[in-house]
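Narrative summary of target 7.
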Amino acid sequence: MDKLPNWHLPELLASYGRFGGTNDRNAHNLPSKRAVGRACDDLLQILFPGMHDEDAILDGLLPQITAERLYSVMRRLEEQVRRSIRMGNPKQVTGKTAPIMEKFSRALPVVRELLQTDVEAAFEGDPSALSREEIILSFPFVEAIAIQRLAHRLYREGAPVVPRMMTEWAHARTGIDIHPGAAIGSHFFIDHGTGVVIGETCRIGNWVKLYHGVTLGARSFAKDDAGHIVKGTKRHPDVHDHVTIYPNSTILGGETVVGENSTIGANVFLMHSVPPNSLVVYEGSQLSVLDKSRRMGDEFSI
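Modeled conformation, tokenized:
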């Protein structure tokens, strides 16, 4: 029998020692991407019962099914949060996981209520949507904002890594990248959605509507004396109530504020604040900030 080739196995194993990137139970025991992804799927079933199932839920079984699903997903997600808290010291007992998960479970009805406002905003803001059920079943932003709103609760309570894993799971499915740290108000709607990026320190008000390709990003990164990026600073813009941002616009900077009732036209590149009731558009090659109250017909059609 011919000897099987080793396919350079020794070199591959040596690279593990040199570069890391492995998840060893004793040394790391990191959260599982597959487990977090399955938890996200199950959480969507809890948020929208029957909407993410192969069949509708039978009459009278909703309480039992919800109880079983909630117990299962909370138990599994709790293990992933525990691993994230113990990163670097997998045998350490911190006592932080149970309080985080208690607050997370308490937030589920609140998140459902917020999501209903998001669906309502989509129904009111998109003439192609014929029913709220159509929006829940088919609009990608619903999955993205649902997972982000859940992940934001874990992020806010201090759970590391897992919230980002959750929103990146949604990013991979929808093309919408919302950091779990972003604080987003009610009646939020992303139309079409592909390519939207919302950074960690964004603060977004109520009744905000974004189109595809919008970036709410960082203008620059402060560095310390050693040349390393400083973490935890306010890097991303604030968007106040009743703002609409049209496709492929980029708004950057932690000090940038888009005032309420403003409209940002398509393809705008903005790195400074604009007052309330602004219309920001390109007129030729010149960026113009106009007062909407003095200009009629400023809404665009997509």
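The domain at 195-302 is CATH 2.160.10.10 (UDP N-Acetylglucosamine Acyltransferase; domain 1).
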